[in-house]
């Protein structure tokens, strides 16, 4: 969706002085003893944003830019952003490898939380101080002030921890939908997943647990894997294995009382996807929703003939069609309530906006395995 600021950004990019000139001051005129700032109620503050002019490696193309104020139209809401995560799909959009992406020049980010700063005269039911998230999410959350129509924003409970409010849609909602939409699971059943340390993975463990469903979890080999296993078990994981531990003839012999899973989740590909398939029972389904290793999935002929496995895919952006928008907000409110009650938690690291390059390096995996990076504005 082309935002007002993005349109402005495009226009501004053609002005040579744009990046270095401060925004023009609001026009002033004087009445006896008072100063009236013409337009001050209809213009946003200037915004500081992470902008990319071309697609490419995010650490090469992302720049911090000062953007001039934009008008706050009748139905617009101007939001002061509080926090926004760096998700793998944000990186893919900037790289130009995500199927749906904003045209360049663009502002990074897709989800986040902010506080209403000002509203247009026709806006009802939202006011300064309210906390809102873009729902469904939309591009351009990596900036200090976002102006979009009221319909984009969903007001949320302000007692929600900020970092959870900022990250509640893309990953937790994916976990929730994938547990619901593919196999009719009952309490006592089991699921298997790779990429268990991801936010989606941590959510799957806990949302499964809430429903009495066991989880078998696969993580990458690493130094300190015992500590990681312990953390996932504290979230409710029944079993956690490193990939190398599963280098055995019969992985199912490693399971004690947990039933064979009918549903598996894959966000890694390569060997890690084959391991998910090995755990599945006859007629089981593996849902692929990510490809972190960038390696293809290889499926043995016998998996089809002798196990009749099904391979499916999930894409939240497709799922969140406009008819689902209302339902989607109810689900988000449910997930937010779980974060407030402590039933849903995941590891994150808040990073001040001025340290964005460090957060980006961590999100790009340059500094090894790191918690989810959440920019704090
Ligand atoms: N299809 C959809 O609609 C949808 C929606 C949401 C998310 N996703 C996808 O879900 C996946 C997880 O997203 P997230 O935000 O939850 O992740 P995250 O919290 O940012 O964590 C990244 C995960 O990827 C793993 N990883 C990173 N590089 C890897 C590599 N080269 N090989 C194997 N594993 C690697 C990390 O493992 P370590 O802990 O070992 O570093 C960690 O588990 C991503 O692929 C994302 O694109 C898809």
Automatic annotation (TrEMBL):
Protein name as catalogued: Enoyl-[acyl-carrier-protein] reductase, mitochondrial
Compartment(s) where it occurs, according to its Swiss-Prot or TrEMBL record: Mitochondrion
Keyword Iron-sulfur found: no
Alphabetically ordered keywords of this record: Fatty acid biosynthesis, Fatty acid metabolism, Lipid biosynthesis, Lipid metabolism, Mitochondrion, NADP, Oxidoreductase, Transit peptide
A GO CC term attached to the entry: mitochondrion
Residue ranges occupied by any Enoyl reductase (ER) domain in the UniProt entry: 56-375
Family label: Belongs to the zinc-containing alcohol dehydrogenase family. Quinone oxidoreductase subfamily.
Record carries keyword Protein biosynthesis: no
Database matches in InterPro entries: ADH-like_C, ADH-like_N, ER, GroES-like_sf, Mito_Enoyl-ACP_Reductase, NAD(P)-bd_dom_sf
Species this protein is from: Sesamum indicum (Oriental sesame)
Gene3D superfamilies cross-referenced by the UniProt entry: Medium-chain alcohol dehydrogenases, catalytic domain, NAD(P)-binding Rossmann-like Domain
BP terms from Gene Ontology: fatty acid biosynthetic process
EC number(s) from the headed UniProt entry: 1.3.1.104
Substrates-to-products reaction catalysed: a 2,3-saturated acyl-[ACP] + NADP(+) = a (2E)-enoyl-[ACP] + NADPH + H(+)
Gene Ontology molecular function, alphabetical: enoyl-[acyl-carrier-protein] reductase (NADPH) activity
């Amino acid at each position: 969706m082309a935002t007002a600021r993005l349109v402005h950004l495009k226009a501004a990019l053609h002005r040579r002085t744009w990046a270095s000139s401060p925004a023009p001051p609001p026009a002033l005129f004087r009445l006896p003893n008072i100063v009236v700032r013409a337009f001050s109620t209809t213009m946003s503050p200037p915004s500081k944003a992470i902008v990319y002019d071309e697609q490419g490696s995010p650490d090469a193309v992302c720049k911090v830019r000062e953007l001039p104020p934009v008008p706050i139209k009748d139905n617009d809401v101007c939001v002061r952003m509080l926090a926004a995560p760096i998700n793998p799909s944000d990186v893919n959009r900037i790289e130009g490898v995500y199927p749906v992406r904003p045209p360049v020049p663009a502002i990074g980010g897709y989800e986040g939380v902010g506080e209403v700063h000002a509203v247009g005269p026709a806006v009802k039911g939202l006011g300064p101080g309210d906390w809102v998230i873009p729902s469904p999410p939309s591009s351009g959350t990596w900036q200090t002030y976002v102006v979009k129509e009221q319909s984009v924003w969903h007001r949320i409970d302000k007692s929600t921890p900020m970092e959870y409010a900022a990250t509640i849609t893309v990953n937790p909602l994916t976990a929730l939908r994938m547990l619901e939409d593919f196999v009719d699971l009952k309490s006592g059943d089991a699921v298997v997943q790779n990429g268990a340390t991801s936010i989606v993975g941590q959510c799957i463990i806990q949302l499964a647990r809430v429903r009495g469903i066991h989880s078998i979890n696969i993580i990458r080999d690493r130094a300190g894997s015992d500590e990681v296993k312990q953390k996932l078990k504290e979230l409710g994981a029944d079993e956690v294995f490193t990939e190398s531990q599963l280098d055995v003839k019969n992985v199912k012999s490693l399971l004690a009382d947990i039933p064979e899973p009918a549903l598996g989740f894959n966000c890694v590909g390569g060997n890690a996807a084959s391991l998910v398939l090995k755990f599945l029972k006859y007629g089981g389904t593996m849902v692929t929703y990510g490809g972190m290793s960038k390696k293809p999935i290889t499926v043995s002929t016998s998996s089809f003939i002798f196990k009749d496995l099904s391979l499916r895919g999930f894409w939240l952006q497709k799922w969140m069609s406009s008819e689902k928008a209302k339902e989607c907000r109810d689900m988000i409110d449910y997930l937010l309530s779980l974060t407030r009650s402590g039933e849903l938690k995941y590891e994150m690291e808040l990073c001040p906006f001025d340290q964005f390059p460090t957060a980006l390096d961590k999100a790009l995996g340059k500094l090894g395995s790191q918690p989810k990076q959440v920019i704090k504005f």
